[in-house]
Amino acid sequence: MLVKDLMSTNVVTVTPETLVSEVAEILHQHHFSGLPVVNEQGVVIGTVSERDFITAESNLYLPTYIKMLSNMDYIQGGKKELPHVVNQIINATVKDIMNQQVPFVRPDTPLEQLATIFGEQRVNPVPVTDSTNKLIGIISRSDLIKFFSPKQVKMGYVTETRTRKIDQQVDFTQGHFRDNFAYVAKARANIWITTAVVLFIVGFLAGIFYVANPDVFTKETPGNQIQQ
């Protein structure tokens, strides 16, 4: 049996300029494990998968980290400025995380050869291309498992060897925040602001009452009066 017998031809793709947050939403909505990255000519230049969302050293899930950074209020400390790298992380695109070491298969590639590719390389799914590497379809591990047992399709990936700028940016941001900033969720900050406003109003009203009648807070009740 050949790749063309199992591959999908209705393929969702992304470009190098697609935001990481948008890719995560596409994968979630369609329950995909990964997507091919194509240029304007439809030529495959890489893939992006759930694994590519994990940062190297801190093991953070990048889409969640981006959402957290986008929904934080920063309380500046020590006259330090918020690093520009934070905006770079929030606006990270596919080109910052994609895997460019992509194996291609042709429609007439035997499934046994495809199973070997999945076992030896870290890509999933695998793009199906023509002789010019233009995308014509896609095939995933789950497609193979329908015809082979999991033992025949090795599920392990080779050790990650890529060095990505986005991983360095995340590590820098984490360390910078620990050293220079306090950051809190906007919801909690709003609670603090509301509490402060309420206390201010209470204090303001109390001040007005005191100015109008200084004895308003010192009047003794009949039961507490000292007998002469």
Please supply descriptive tags for the structure shown above.
single chain; 228 residues; alpha+beta; 8 helices; 6 strands; 13% strand; elongated
> How does the major sheet shape up?
2 strands, antiparallel
Shape: elongated
Helicity, as a percent range? 25-40%
- What is Rg? 29 Å
Could you tell me the strand content as a percent range? 5-15%
The DSSP helix count reads 8
Please write the string of helix (H) and strand (E) elements.
HEEHEHHHEEHHEH
Describe the structure.
This protein is an alpha+beta fold. The protein has eight helices and six strands, in the order αββαβαααββααβα. The chain has helices at 20-30, 62-70, 84-90, 94-97, 111-120, 141-145, 165-180, 186-212, and strands at residues 34-38, 44-49, 72-76, 126-129, 135-139, 181-185. The strands form three sheets. The chain has a two-stranded antiparallel sheet. Strands 3-6 form a two-stranded antiparallel ribbon. A hairpin with a 5-residue loop joins strand 1 and strand 2 (44-49). Helix 3 packs across helix 7 (165-180). The termini are far apart.
